[in-house]
Design a protein that fits this description.
Elements lengths: L1 H16 L15 H8 L1 H17 L8 H14 L2 E2 L10 E2 L4 H17 L7 E5 L2 E8 L2 E7 L7 E3 L14 E6 L7 E8 L2 E7 L9 E6 L10
Parallel strand pairs: 1-2
Antiparallel strand pairs: 3-4, 3-10, 4-5, 5-6, 7-8, 8-9, 9-10
Length: about 230
């Protein structure tokens, strides 16, 4: 009996000491420093599991019609999750390989989960009309909009990045007030469907002509655009 108790105690100690297995990958095959940190840190491991579930749910948005876009943005986010050497900056990597790495990874995982769960995520993306582009970036608390036009007289406009436009669950019509007052004042009312958005323009918008329908481009990630 004593041998049995000792054996069971040993197995229990091994189970406690073993790293938690992250949901999105096999910890026994972890290679990168990020993957090893996820497997060793209980909080990160739980976040990775939650992220995998949240990502799976995001693939079902609009009845799965924007799954290609969801996969594209997730690949981009995973690429930005790598650790950058302390002496390097500006490479699109979110965390530095130093003492801040673990807190940073926890923060960006929490942010990514919040973005995927946010009601605005299914509306986010790149929408085009010929050479013109509207970018809608999903934030944990809402959406930021920007446009870039081929017209040299009215090329760009933005909402206030510091104050994302809030979106309620199930909401498909959103009003975006762009920065500017007086002759540059502009509000865009956007009505979304899975593959397009219809814009109603209110105000001169600095001479821009933004009304009409814009097609969703699932091959482009708003986080990768340079404006």
């Amino acid at each position: 009996m004593n041998h049995l108790i000792a054996a069971l105690a040993g197995l229990l100690l091994l189970a406690v000491a073993a790293p938690a297995n992250a949901a999105s990958f096999d910890c026994a095959k972890a290679k990168s420093k990020v993957e090893k940190l996820i497997c060793k840190d209980p909080q990160l491991s739980r976040q990775d599991e939650d992220l995998a579930k949240t990502y799976g749910e995001a693939l079902k948005l609009w009845d799965g019609k924007i799954a290609a876009y969801v996969k594209l943005t997730q690949r981009g986010w995973v690429a930005s999750r790598a650790l950058e050497p302390p002496e390097v900056s500006g490479g699109g990597i979110l965390c530095t390989d130093d003492e801040s790495a673990l807190p940073c990874l926890r923060t960006i995982h929490a942010d990514r989960i919040a973005v995927l769960k946010s009601p605005g995520f299914r509306l986010s993306g790149i929408y085009t009309r010929g050479p013109d582009m509207i970018s809608l970036k999903a934030m944990p608390t809402g959406l930021n909009l920007g446009y870039m036009l081929g017209d040299p007289n009215a090329t760009q406009g933005f909402t206030d990045d510091a104050h994302p436009v809030k979106v309620a669950v199930g909401q498909t019509v959103v009003s975006f007030p762009l920065t500017g007052t007086g002759p540059d004042a502009c509000v865009l009312d956007a009505a979304f469907e899975a593959d397009m958005v219809t814009i109603t323009q209110k105000g001169p918008c600095g001479g821009a002509k933004l009304g009409g329908w814009w097609k969703r481009d699932q091959t482009r990630d708003p986080e990768a655009e340079l404006f």
